[in-house]
Amino acid sequence: MNHIKTDILIIGAGSGGLSVAAGAAQMGADVVLLEGHKMGGDCLNYGCVPSKALIATGKAAYGQRHAAQFGVTDTEGAVDYAAAKDHVADVIATIAPVDSQERFEGFGINVIREFGRFISHNEVQAGDTVIKARRIVIATGSSPLVPPIPGLETVPYETNETLFDLREAPEHLLIVGGGPIGMEMAQAHIRMGCKVTVIEGGKALGKDDPELAEVVLSSLKEEGVEIAEDALASEIRGSAGVIEIETKDGRIFKGSHLLMAVGRKSNTDKLDLEAGGVKPSRGGIEVDESLRTSNKRVYAIGDVAGGLQFTHVAGYHAGVIIRSMLFGLPSKAKTAHIPWATYTDPELAQVGLTEAQAKESHGDAVEVVRFHYSHNDRAIAERKTKGFIKVMVVKGRPVGASIVGYQAGELINLWALALANKMKMSQIAAMVAPYPTIGEINKRVAGAYFSPRLFESGLVKRVVGLVQRFVP
After folding, report:
1. Does the annotation flag 303 for ligand binding?
2. How do the domains of the chain map onto residue ranges?
3. According to the annotation, is 193 in a ligand binding site?
4. Is 52 annotated to bind ligand?
5. Between which residues do disulfide bridges form (predicted)?
6. Which of 99, 264, 303, 313 is the most buried (most CB within 10 A)?
7. 301 annotated as belonging to a binding site for a ligand
């Protein structure tokens, strides 16, 4: 058995673990990084990267079939499914060197390709190596949650970890789960020529503002996606190519392939948390505001910390704990400024409070201002007029922004900046946006906040009248 000592031991080489490793090593800490599976974690290999690559294929096919509106002849837009998966693999391969073992060894990090498990409060065993560390970071991420639906154990199914390996297009894809993953893959596959049915036990896109979610859902339905809500799967039966899902209310859905997309579970099974004095939680690992666990030598970040499960949150968590571990400074993780996006067409994005949450928290003090894509000249030129933005404002400061429409995931960045820095609507309104851009939507919604104050105010009109009469 090999024994080594280090300043910081990181378990998991996904986005959060890699961010901590790179930052800590380049600032002079001695770092050991453990990864028992693939460098880059879920995001690079099974999540954000491959899904967006497949969405791009669907978008290209859809564009060919709907080109006439731009004066270009529509074509069939036929998809070679295997070639599309080659495109996905190439995208992953292009990005992979950034997350590679070689790159991180170049930072002076000791990368060990083994899973780690606690054997004491400050020791972890990985293969035939025992690492004793002053600080330990758990960044093991999450995996697809597969619920115990009767019959599922005998039926072939896909998750996000296997879907991108398929080489033949599903004739009819059944998707259990109407969250972001389910809806993104539903639209990508309908655009690639598959039939798609989404079966959701509650409301599809149920964690988003229902007014915005309805814009997305109606678009998917228009493209041919069947969306069954309040359809809780009670039994799954069949075999490859012939699968049936029966719901509690007796509905039966038939298809050729099945994708389970009902959520995520934190990866803690291999860690032996009890030996490390680390208390688990329902969502993964219990942490305080500084992302410390019950063992103060140990931090947990990203999906395994049981909060918002996004790649960018794991990266943010990395910055929070680096400040604490390397400099001994107080540092707390916050969520009010964390944005998220669903990459359907139209896109759906959110930061801060939704309208319902803002009214619950602030009551009548909330003002909700809107601006529609149909009034944006660039959106008109691009034929992307479906959607709108609404911003929740309290005493001149935005407390939340919700966007559905073209490039919503890009537009939400400005509002994430505003919330992170407690900016005022007047600062957004003072921005000058180039014309014509989609980004003008952000400025125009800020203008919509001030318009009634300027144009409907008797005081303003009286002041202007006095200036015109008496000021030379």
Report:
1. yes
2. 2-39+100-144+265-327, 152-263, 339-455
3. no
4. yes
5. 43-48
6. 303
7. no
Q: What is the pLDDT of residues 17-74, one digit of tens each?
A: 999 999 999 999 999 999 999 999 999 999 999 999 999 999 999 999 999 999 999 9
Q: Which residues contact 159 (CB under 8 A, 6 or more apart)?
A: 144, 146, 259, 260, 261
Indicate the helix (H) or strand (E) that contains 342.
Answer: strand 339-342
Token duo for residue 379? 């959106």
The fourth-level CATH superfamily of domain 2-39+100-144+265-327 is FAD/NAD(P)-binding domain (3.50.50.60)
What tokens were used for 150?
């009767």
Q: Is 409 annotated as a binding residue?
A: no
Instruction: Summarize pLDDT for 385-426 with one digit per residue, the tens.
Output: 999 999 999 999 999 999 999 999 999 999 999 999 999 999
Which amino acid is residue 376, in one-letter code? N
Q: Is 116 annotated to bind ligand?
A: yes
Tokens of 306: 């049981």
Q: Is residue 182 a known part of a binding site?
A: yes
200 annotated ligand-binding residue: yes
Q: Say whether 431 counts as a known binding-site residue.
A: no
Q: Which helix (H) or strand (E) holds 176?
A: strand 172-176
pTM above 0.85, yes or no: yes
Fold of 339-455: Enolase-like; domain 1 (3.30.390)
Q: What are phi and psi of 277, to 5 degrees?
A: 70, 30
> What CA–CA distance (Å, rounded) separates 27 from 448?
46
Tokens encoding 144: 């697809």
